[in-house]
Amino acid sequence: MLLKRMLRVVATAGVLSVVLGLGACSMPGSGNAGASDGASSSSSSSSESSSYEAELKQALQSASSDFERGVLERAVKAGKISESDYREANEKYQECMAAKGDDVEFDTDQSTGLMQEHMNTDDNYDSAKANEDSMACAKGTNLQIRDLYERMVQNPSNADEIELVVGCLKRRKLVPDSFTKQDYLTEMGKPEGSSKLDTSSDAFSQCLANPSK
């Protein structure tokens, strides 16, 4: 499959799949106070949506099919890609792959609601053909939609994703409090086995997958 689909966590590229849980708190009070809280909540939601405005518009400009354009035009107006459009995009991609003889399936991660792609292979599996098919099928179906939707779900405020991971590593005592984003990039850029980071540990993997925990 496409490297970007299989290696969804690329530590040295600054594109890490993370989950940022955001909660809203409201204080009890009078009717006027409640209205104020509602306005604040609406403002926060609007801010989160607008954080991806540039990316949505850029994706729309790169759309290569009527389907993609329709999805992204709706997303620009709403401030986000809808789950139904995300799922339909992946279904169209899957149908295209099936037509090319590639047995692709999607499983839904129950903790995030995101669709995880995997391919059923046999002794005749041709990785070069599969990659070529994947690139061809993604164009016009989920190429401009899938990764952007998943980033919006996992990181709604569009925060610096590496900083989030570094924060998780600190909370789990995997790195000292003085550890910085640059330290992380330096360590991850070292040859395999020479980094000070225990990248094979479950705790490290969990920070990459969901640094908010």
TrEMBL record:
Low complexity composition-biased segments: 30-53
Polar residues compositional bias, start-end: 196-213
First and last residue of the signal peptide: 1-35
Top-level taxon: Bacteria
Entry keywords, A to Z: Signal
Region (Disordered): 30-65, 185-213
Protein name, per record: Lipoprotein
Organism whose genome encodes this protein: Bifidobacterium vansinderenii
